[in-house]
Design brief:
This protein has about 575 residues and is α+β, with helices and mostly antiparallel strands. It contains 20 helices and 14 strands. It has three domains: about 180 residues, 2-Layer Sandwich (Alpha-Beta Plaits); about 220 residues, Four Helix Bundle (Hemerythrin (Met), subunit A) (Up-down Bundle); about 130 residues, Nuclear Transport Factor 2, Chain: A (Roll), CATH 3.10.450.
Length: about 575
């Protein structure tokens, strides 16, 4: 203590403030203040982590002291890295970047406050730093130059305001670290590491368990939606889909919105299955090439991959899975698959964002430059930049974006279903919907239906139990085989798929009568198909319309070949 009763000590002083703070406030005061609070909270946690003490934080400034120059320097570097991660998804004009100055000098203490030239010099060094940069004095440099493995740029003697003597200044090039920082104190707690990794209150709390959940979700999607053996898996997990039929609020999830086994009068609708197969193969190839690139690089001990497919998109593996999933959706166009596909795209976006934060933390501005050059795999990645930077507001905005996109996509699916039904050969009455997977005109449909109902045994079986009962009738060429319709008892040694030759005898048909399962028995006409979630077979009649005679009347199997599970209605 000096003669005047003032404590003095040697300390490393850190001074930081926001570059362009007035401009940010003028553009959006509320958002700027919220961002400042969030960012400065992260900086304060780092100060505590590196054994420092926050002295004051007036306005956009942060003043802290440390017992050693090394701790202060490590903290400053980690601050800039954390701030870079925080700014990763923020538009350039809205990024909040701090300048940091470090000085080792004598300070006076009164209570919790510190004063003296040491504080003033740290503030002047901060003014010399560029946005996102760090400037240090000679005293700090001499203490850390052999301990802190970063690059330094000698700026020489600098005259600063209100300091009579010039100060020798060094710029810390923290983005050019030759290795990770060498810790000389115990590692920080795992919770602090996680907070630093994400840098966001809305992610830091659950980042690790959430990421594992997402990876498990991706694995299940590959197994059940994308696997070439999906049809075999479907027979195992498909019965669980019947649970959706208990309520009209969920029964729609098992509906199909594109034709699955029906030929239509629309050439592009008839090509969806072929396009789906091409997309599945293309997506799988993109995924495998990206997989080989990134894991080959890891095995060879190379740095981050930026060549090959990664020169065109930052996440070719997710892009490949997205393409593959779209192909699966075209092959099996159920609303439930559509909802799962959109959800998985958002989950891929979360995974990509988390992984890019890790890359920014490890590779710094070099990865930022790569981000500026190469686009992401999904437009949603760019939409995310329009969301709030962090916190509950970002979570709510992300959730609203997901719900909005999902709602729009489902609405589009209903539009496609209506369009598909308009292009399918069909005939509708008050209590009956007649469909054909072949392209037939109305006269051909009526002829087959008339012959099939001409026998009293058939009419008796079709007699409704109530006036509200609806029928769904299929007119199928006699030689066709459709695994999704309960027509013949399956041959265990026969093929399990569809056989639908374009050339067929247009006088020989199988007419399958089924009762509709629906939560809306009041539906009529085309709405019978739209409101149905299933069907129960009644009788199968084989007819010859040229000779106007019934060839055979057969009992139908109780289920389709896949069991009592939801299969396409068209």
């Amino acid at each position: 203590m000096d003669p005047q009763g003032i404590d003095r000590k040697l300390a490393a002083i850190l001074s930081a403030d926001v570059a362009g703070y007035a401009r940010l406030m003028a553009a959006d005061e509320v958002s700027t203040l919220q961002t400042l609070t969030s960012y400065r909270g992260q900086m304060m946690r780092l100060v505590q982590q590196y054994r420092g003490r926050v002295v004051d934080s007036p306005g956009d400034n942060l003043l802290a002291e440390f017992p050693s120059a090394f701790d202060a320097s490590r903290c400053a570097v980690e601050m800039q890295r954390a701030l870079q991660r925080l700014n990763a998804d923020v538009l350039p004009e809205r990024r909040m970047e701090f300048r940091i100055g470090l000085h080792l000098g004598d300070v006076m203490m009164t209570g919790d406050r510190i004063y003296g030239d040491g504080v003033n010099i740290a503030a002047r060094l901060e003014g010399l730093a560029e946005p996102g940069g760090i400037c240090i004095s000679t005293g700090v440099y001499e203490q850390v130059r052999r301990k802190l493995r970063v690059a330094y740029e000698d700026l020489g003697q600098q005259y600063v305001k209100n300091i009579p003597e010039p100060i020798h200044v060094y710029r810390v090039r923290w983005d050019q670290a030759s290795d990770s920082l060498q810790p000389t104190s115990p590692a920080p707690p795992r919770s602090d590491l996680l907070a630093g990794l994400s840098g966001r209150p809305d992610v830091a709390v659950f980042v690790v368990p959430a990421i594992w959940v997402l990876y498990v979700g991706v694995g299940l999607e590959i197994l059940f939606m994308i696997s070439p053996f999906a049809l075999y898996y479907y027979s195992a997990y498909g019965p669980s889909l019947n649970l959706f039929h208990g309520s009209s609020a969920t029964a729609w999830l098992t509906d199909f919105f594109l034709p699955h086994f029906s030929h239509t009068s629309s050439p592009w609708l008839d090509q969806t299955l072929h396009v789906g197969g091409i997309l599945v193969v293309a997506g799988a190839l993109v995924f495998l090439v990206g997989f080989v690139q990134v894991y080959g690089s890891k095995l060879l001990g190379k740095s981050v991959v930026t060549g090959g497919l990664y020169a065109f998109t930052r996440h070719p593996q997710y892009l490949g899975l997205a393409i593959l999933g779209l192909g699966t959706l075209l092959i099996w166009p159920r609303f439930l698959v559509l909802v799962a596909y959109v959800t998985m795209l958002f989950l891929y976006g979360l995974l990509a964002r988390w992984e890019e934060q890790r890359c920014l933390a490890q590779f710094g501005p070099s990865y930022r430059s790569y981000q500026d050059r190469v686009g992401s795999f999904s437009p949603a990645q760019y939409l995310s930049r329009l969301l709030p930077a962090s916190g509950v507001r970002r979570f709510v905005a992300s959730l609203l974006l997901y719900v909005g996109v999902l709602g729009a996509v489902v609405a589009g699916g209903y539009g496609l279903r209506d369009y598909s039904l308009s292009k399918i050969s069909s005939l509708f009455t008050q209590n009956m919907a007649v469909l054909s997977p072949a392209v037939l005109d109305e006269q051909e449909l009526r002829a087959a239906l008339t012959v099939a109902t001409s026998d009293g045994r058939v009419s008796t079986q079709l007699r409704p139990a109530s006036a509200r009962e609806k029928l769904l009738v299929y007119v199928v060429p006699l030689d066709w085989q459709l695994a999704d319709l309960p027509m013949e008892v399956p041959d265990p040694d026969g093929p399990r798929g569809h056989y639908q030759p374009r050339d067929f005898d247009r006088s020989l048909y199988k007419v399958l009568f089924t009762r509709v399962r629906t939560h809306h028995p009041e539906a009529t006409g085309e709405d019978i198909v739209k409101q149905a979630y299933g069907r129960d077979p009644i009788v199968l009649v084989k007819v010859d319309t040229r000779r106007r005679r019934i060839i055979a009347i057969e009992n139908t199997p109780p289920h389709v070949r896949w069991g009592d599970i939801p299969t396409p209605l068209f």
